[in-house]
Every structure is written in structure tokens, then in C-alpha cells.
UniProtKB/TrEMBL annotation:
Transmembrane regions: 91-111, 120-138, 144-165, 186-213, 219-238, 250-274, 286-305, 317-340, 352-370, 391-411
Acetylation recorded as keyword: no
Name this polypeptide is given: DUF4153 domain-containing protein
Entry keywords, A to Z: Membrane, Transmembrane, Transmembrane helix
Record's keyword annotation contains Membrane: yes
Species per Swiss-Prot/TrEMBL record: Spirosoma linguale (strain ATCC 33905 / DSM 74 / LMG 10896 / Claus 1)
Length: 414
């Protein structure tokens, strides 16, 4: 390796190839050669690259830490409102679960990105309007439009978070791809915090149990609920201040699970042929189809969001293309099942919502599949795949707003 480094010292491309062939051997060989290479600018750059170590972990500024602590405490307080003011927990959490965290995360990124007061006022006004609207809907637990509004409201708030994360620009391009990457990193950090919290909970309860104190009810009602409300905020803080925690883990997870998801999906589709069940007459089976569809779509988007134009190998792009193609088949089956149920039993709020979502997802998947095919055949760049993913996100936001705010009116609060 030493001879190869010396012979290619003035060939940056070949040095890069040697480095990626065997990083450990390359670093050891280069460091032994470095004393005789001092003065060479390229060698100096490689030495700094190979031996750089950050002095200490960065935990954000003091103001940022204070903001996160305050926001976490406020989220915990909001989660405890039903107990503080004696509200019905079912009513409160079904309508307000999105308001416990999303406005605080929106405020966090609005502060970090220094968005204008005008944009901040618009965001605050939209959140306040949604809060008032959802509370003025008739209190009818059997209302399908109420349930749909409660389900889609967090999705709409999530889109406002994406707009704020991307810079809150009313004019210009919003960084939606960065927002998808943030969500993927959040999906990595959040379970780690939950596992740590679960271990702490088990240890605390058992230690008190040994002393004769039964604190399970109190602990779960106050500590666990408050902790769950604060987790997304703390996880967000970690993704922004400690990117090294997830920058390397997230792509590995995406690359590992993509082929697994492809095999699972093919096996599942094959098994359904022989199971005797179908989504055309089995409503629960149709819901499972759609849940599976959303999960696989999220995996595809996460995989591409974590990629760079040079980080994905042809085999990985092929797997993503096959995965998207199989997912298109699943989506097509689900969409045909929804259309069949509408033709047989008429249009209902639930069927209208699922129909719109399936049409959007199918259109989106087809677009992404075309771009993946282009990247696989080297007719286009992988960056175009990322753009194809983010192109539809504002459309999803618009659709979720229609379901939240217009469906109750269009279907007479049924």
C-alpha cells in the first residue's frame, strides 16, 4: 500500500480509490509515510482528513439548550392538562395530540432558521385556526369526519413543520429533502431514547418496589406521559447538535432494510394469493394493505433522502427500483379495492379519504419509480430521485388540509 500511495501521490482520483478500497490499511500506510511527505499540499490535506478528531461533543449554544429544556417542560405540561383541569382524556388527546409537540418544534426551527416575523405570524395564525376548528367540531365519537380530521390534523401540522424546517420561505425552494432526512434521523434517535427511558422506568419501579412503594400508577400517569411528550423535542435537538450520532447509522439501516422489505413484500403478496383473503371484501385487510404501503413508501423515501449522488451503488438503486415497483403493484391493488367498495356500497367519508390518499401515493410512486429507473440506467442523476420525492409533499399537505377542514362540511359532520 505504501508504494501505491507514493506512486499515485499526484493522482487524487487514484488516491481516493485506494482509500475506499481499504480505509484502515490506507490510513496506517499513509501515516508512516507522512514525515517524508511534509510540504506536499495534497499530503497535508490527506493527513488532516485521516487524523481529524473533534475536540469535544457539541451540545448547541446555551440559548438553544435553554430553549429545548423550556420546550420539553411545556410539552410535558400540555400532556398533563387533562389531569390539571379535569378534562376528558379521550376528548383531549384525540383532538390535541398534534398540538402538544408540533407547535413547539415549529417554534424551534423558526428560531433556528430566523424566519421573518411575517411568516411566523402566518404559521401562528394557521395553528390557532386549526386549534379552534378542531374544538368546534361536534362531540360525536361515532362521526367518521371527526375521526378523519383528528387523524389528518397531525399530518397537516407535520407539513407546517417541514415548511419551517426548510427555511420558512414564502418565495423560493423549501428544503423538503433535508426535512425527509431529518425525519429519518428522528426515527433512529427516538427509539434509542425510548429504550433508555424504558430501562430507567423498569429500574426505578423495581427499586421502589423493593422498598415497599407501589409507584406504577403515579409513574406512568405523570412521569412516562410527560417523558413521551418531551422525547420528540429532545430527539430533534440531538439530530441537530449531534449529527455524527445518526449520519452513519441511518444510511446503514436504510440499506439493510430495503432488501428485507423487498423480499417481505414479494412473499406477502404471494401468500395473499393462497390465503383466501382479499382487500375487496375484507375491510381490515384493506387497512393492512394501506398501512404496509405507507411503511414501505417511508422506507424508500428515507433510503433516497440519506443518499448522495455517489453513495448509492448500482445494486442498491436496483433494489430501490424493484421495491418501488412492487409497492406500485400493492398500491394498485389497494386503489382498485377502494374503487370496488365505492361502486358496491357508495361513497363515504372514509372511502373518499382513502381514495384520495391512494391516488396521490400511486402517482407519487410512479414518478419516483421512473426517476429510479433513470438513475439505474444512468440516464439521469440520483438527485432527480430526491426531487421527485419532495415534489409531492406540498400536495400531501393540501390533501390533509382538505380532509381536516373541508370533509366535515362536505359530508355534514357524518
Amino acid at each position: 500500500m505504501r508504494e501505491e500511495i507514493l506512486s499515485n501521490l499526484n493522482n487524487p482520483r487514484q488516491l481516493e480509490t485506494l482509500y475506499w478500497t481499504n480505509k484502515t490499511t490506507f490510513k496506517a500506510a499513509f501515516n508512516t509515510l507522512y514525515p517524508q511527505l511534509q510540504g506536499n499540499l495534497l499530503a497535508e490535506g490527506w493527513y488532516q482528513r485521516l487524523n481529524y478528531k473533534p475536540d469535544e461533543l457539541a451540545w448547541g449554544t446555551a440559548k438553544e439548550r435553554l430553549f429545548v429544556v423550556g420546550a420539553s417542560g411545556l410539552a410535558a405540561l400540555l400532556a398533563q392538562l387533562p389531569k390539571i383541569v379535569s378534562l376528558d382524556e379521550g376528548y383531549f388527546y384525540s383532538r390535541h395530540v398534534g398540538f402538544i409537540v408540533f407547535p413547539l418544534l415549529i417554534a424551534y426551527f423558526a428560531w433556528k432558521n430566523k424566519i421573518s416575523w411575517k411568516t411566523g405570524a402566518w404559521l401562528g395564525g394557521l395553528i390557532l385556526f386549526a386549534l379552534v376548528f378542531i374544538n368546534f367540531l361536534p362531540k360525536n365519537p361515532a362521526s367518521n369526519t371527526l375521526i378523519l380530521s383528528c387523524i389528518h390534523l397531525p399530518l397537516w401540522l407535520w407539513s407546517l413543520l417541514g415548511f419551517t424546517f426548510g427555511g420558512g420561505k414564502l418565495k423560493g425552494e423549501v428544503n423538503w429533502l433535508g426535512f425527509l432526512r431529518y425525519n429519518g434521523e428522528l426515527a433512529v434517535v427516538t427509539p434509542l431514547l425510548l429504550i433508555a427511558g424504558g430501562l430507567t422506568t423498569a429500574l426505578t419501579i423495581n427499586l421502589f418496589g423493593l422498598s415497599g412503594w407501589k409507584i406504577e400508577t403515579f409513574y406512568f400517569s405523570y412521569i412516562v406521559v410527560s417523558g413521551l411528550a418531551a422525547v420528540p423535542i429532545v430527539a430533534t435537538f440531538l439530530t441537530q447538535t449531534q449529527p455524527a450520532l445518526v449520519n452513519k447509522v441511518a444510511p446503514v439501516i436504510a440499506n439493510l432494510f430495503s432488501p428485507v422489505a423487498l423480499v417481505m413484500l414479494v412473499v406477502y403478496l404471494t401468500a395473499t394469493v393462497f390465503s383466501g383473503k382479499d382487500p375487496y371484501h375484507d375491510r381490515d385487510f384493506l387497512l393492512l394493505y394501506n398501512a404496509l404501503l405507507i411503511g414501505v413508501m417511508a422506507l424508500i423515501f428515507f433510503s433516497v433522502a440519506e443518499a448522495t449522488p455517489t453513495s448509492k451503488k448500482p445494486v442498491q438503486i436496483l433494489i430501490l427500483f424493484l421495491l418501488s415497483t412492487v409497492t406500485v403493484v400493492v398500491n394498485g391493488i389497494a386503489l382498485s379495492a377502494v374503487l370496488f367498495r365505492i361502486s358496491e356500497w357508495g361513497l363515504t367519508p372514509n372511502r373518499a379519504a382513502v381514495l384520495g390518499a391512494n391516488v396521490l401515493m400511486l402517482s407519487h410512486l410512479l414518478y419516483v419509480s421512473v426517476r429510479l429507473f433513470g438513475a439505474m440506467t444512468r440516464k439521469s442523476d440520483l438527485s432527480l430521485v430526491g426531487r421527485s420525492m419532495t415534489f409531492f409533499l406540498p400536495v400531501y399537505s393540501l390533501w390533509s388540509a382538505i380532509v381536516v377542514f373541508l370533509f366535515p362540511l362536505l359530508f355534514g359532520f357524518k
